[in-house]
Amino acid sequence: VQPNNYSTFYDDQRQNWSIMFESEKAAVDFSKQVCIAKYNSSPALDAVLCQDLVLGEGQGVEGGDSLEIAYTGWLFQNNGLGQAFDSNVNKDKLLRLKLGSGKVIKGWEEGMMGMKKGGRRYLIIPPAWAYGAQGVAGRVPPDSTLVFEVEVKRVKLVKECSGSDGQSVSSRDSPAPSPVPNSDGFSAD
């Protein structure tokens, strides 16, 4: 994914191709389909599959950074998007999380690394990186592969925090600034 609605890729002969799309929506939709095709063509996925939709700006996030994100999650069914099981897109509250804190599924922790403010990414998360054999009662069946579209709305980098003496202070040493997610939030499960 490139700025200004471009995508570039290599074919199986390692030739470089670029496609310019008429709109951001067309570029994003194409990128989603590429990600689904990658998943469907891999024999057994044992890691998170990530596809950038919009790059965002600034520095990429790392473990310890705090984020506020908008997301939608779907079950992966019949080789494509199934039923949506969770979203905060049309809600007033963004999900707050600190990468590396273990408050969300392992696939999110892995799949969001390197994202930038304003960035959007598509994640396809195999069961071992999501809710595994237990699933989530009434929402996510056992051994489900999940698809998420995540957008980073705000970022607080650990490196931006500094003490009065100018020394860097890790926000890991202080309590998380975000409230504990409520029972209907994604991370509470």
From TrEMBL:
Ranges of residues in domain PPIase FKBP-type: 64-156
EC category name: isomerase
Keyword tRNA processing: no
Organism domain of life: Eukaryota
Region (Disordered): 161-189
Catalytic activity: [protein]-peptidylproline (omega=180) = [protein]-peptidylproline (omega=0)
GO cellular component, one term: early endosome
Protein family according to the UniProt entry: Belongs to the FKBP-type PPIase family.
Protein name per Swiss-Prot or TrEMBL: peptidylprolyl isomerase
Taxonomic lineage from the root: Eukaryota, Metazoa, Chordata, Craniata, Vertebrata
